[in-house]
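In this notebook, the sequence line spells out the residues, with the fold written below as integer tokens. This is how one looks.
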Amino acid sequence: MPLRHKAEEESDSSREEQHLRMNSKIQKMELNDGHSIPVLGFGTYATEENLRKKSMESTKIAIDVGFRHIDCSHLYQNEEEIGQAIVSKIEDGTVKREDIFYTSKLWSTSHRPELVRPSLENSLRKLNLDYVDLYLIHFPVSLKPGDELLPQDEHGNLILDTVDLCDTWEAMEKCKDAGLAKSIGVSNFNRRQLEKILNKPGLKHRPVCNQVECHLYLNQSKLLAYCKMNDIVLVAYGALGTQRYKYCINEDTPVLLDDPILCTMAKKYKRTPALIALRYQLERGIVTLVKSFNEERIRENLQVFDFQLASDDMEILDNLDRNLRYFPANMFKAHPNFPFSDEY
């Protein structure tokens, strides 16, 4: 069955189908607070300073070709450039502000409740926007407040902070109530950490999503099932594997897009392995982020809506899971809240 559903059919669709709808070119998924999120998002992470300008130009291209969901973060240190790209596309009439779904993230040095709103307001100033559509707690690990993104002691160890994530969440709720963020959620949380928020006494707003690494080699099936059960959308980053960041992986780490089964299936559907990998996530009801600095690939990624995968092929792809993380975030492993254990 196609991903898109007419409004009158939504009441009959199962909760598992997550109310996918078509809005012009962009398919959206309903969030638990009544807002909706485009199911395909454009990632803007850039590892080097000289790539920030490229991220601005690629974001402009992404908006031009039809992307409306833009994902960024304070950690990426390029929100000013991404904001310039969005504002320029608003000013030239390509889009209106309400057409863009913009995600930002609260970094770990600002988990103390009194720092949450100022951090969001700082991002908004850089972006030259009045609000973000989605604000996430980027990582469930708290670091010493300050200007350093990764504060370290004289031995090179991260300087941690002790903050109750429930207190951080209450400050996030206030940002939503103030209209600075339309929706709020989390990122890199496991089930235990999600439950802590969901079971918080006096919870006012539930997390609308959990953004995590998710791809064919790490399909997050248990976490996905838990999130669906609790009406939380799973958002996948790293959906195509990784761009071989040296700080994450070694030379022996397998390249996802070279997987022989994936490549064989790509030939069957006359699509690229990347499109098969992206379509796999959308078929599972997962909002999926994809990043590229290449205009041709940016355009190609939108072709993910032009085909579907057969159920037996989905099962074959399910079996590629090997619990492999491309982004292990080893620097946080000493922290009691580190989420990347065998639990989900």
In short: DSSP finds ten helices and eleven strands in the chain. Confidence is low (pLDDT under 50) at residues 1-24, 334-342.
